[in-house]
Backbone:
């Protein structure tokens, strides 16, 4: 993106939405990202565009004039993009996507194969990895990320579902070690329960729960197995090696078969939001938009467990 266009979309969105927070929702970024973009725009222009107080914001005289011109510029860009898409009824070209390994193989990959069958001119390059990728540096069009996103104005995110987490264990493990009936019981005994836990690059994941009062509760248990494969954690839990905190969609078959059981019902489910992210730009290729829309429509139902 040309430096002269940076911050303009955020500025126009903030004017039209009436607040930075609502503009952030419209652009699928954080409020802080919008504020930083507009601050950099004001610094580049060497002028104030907004008069801001703790309760309101309004345009300066310079801001009014700048908004009218920017609005017309963005309208022209939108019209130009629309012209390129009007002749298209199918996606064509290559889209490169990175996604979490297990989720990608079992859920996202099959969805994208179905999309490719609908669009014979669409090519896909899929990377299955749990590491955090750099879209620009690695030449990726899209990435699917789980959990909290970095606060950056360079990325656009669209929610595509929630990975709800369940605490589960093998019946034999609970029969031998006891059956905790709530969050506090996990660590209350003199011999706390063991866990099989996700760990990557030396960082061990902490389990998060919503307590009865709605607040987040973090739990860390002793573990003999730490790994970066959710599939191995699932097998370890089925084998009775400890409690496991797993995505509900991953544990669903084992729960239905009885090889795993839910340890207890949680006061409020906890989940990690899934987002598909892309680099910010005025022009979103039709092929990329088709992939994003397909995931947003079809992935959330696959993550819901009765």
Residues:
């Amino acid at each position: 993106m040309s430096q002269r266009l940076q911050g303009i979309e955020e500025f126009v969105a903030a004017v039209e939405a009436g607040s930075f927070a609502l503009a952030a929702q419209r652009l699928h970024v954080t409020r802080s990202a919008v504020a930083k973009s507009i601050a950099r725009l004001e610094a580049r222009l060497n002028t104030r565009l907004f008069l801001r107080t703790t309760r309101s914001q309004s345009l300066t005289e310079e801001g009014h004039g700048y908004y009218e011109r920017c609005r017309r510029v963005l309208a022209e860009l939108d019209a130009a993009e629309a012209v390129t898409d009007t002749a298209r009824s199918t996606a064509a070209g290559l889209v490169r996507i990175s996604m979490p390994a297990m989720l990608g193989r079992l859920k996202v990959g099959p969805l994208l194969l179905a999309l490719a069958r609908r669009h014979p001119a669409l090519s896909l390059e899929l990377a299955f990895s749990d590491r955090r990728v750099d879209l620009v540096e690695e030449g990726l069009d899209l990435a699917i990320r789980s959990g909290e996103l970095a606060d950056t104005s360079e990325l656009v995110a669209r929610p595509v579902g929630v990975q709800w987490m369940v605490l589960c264990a093998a019946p034999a493990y609970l029969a031998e070690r006891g059956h905790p009936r709530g969050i506090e019981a996990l660590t209350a005994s003199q011999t706390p329960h063991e866990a099989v836990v996700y760990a990557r690059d030396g960082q061990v994941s902490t389990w998060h729960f919503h307590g009865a009062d709605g607040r987040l509760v973090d739990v860390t248990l002793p573990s003999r197995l730490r790994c970066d494969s959710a599939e191995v954690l699932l097998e370890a839990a089925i084998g009775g090696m400890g409690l496991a905190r797993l995505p509900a969609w991953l544990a669903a078959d084992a729960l239905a078969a009885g090889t795993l059981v839910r340890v207890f019902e949680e006061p409020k489910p906890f989940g990690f939001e899934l987002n598909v992210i892309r680099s910010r730009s005025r022009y979103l290729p039709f092929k990329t938009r088709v992939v994003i829309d397909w995931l947003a429509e079809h992935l959330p139902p696959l993550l819901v467990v009765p």
About this structure: The two ends are 44 Å apart (CA to CA).
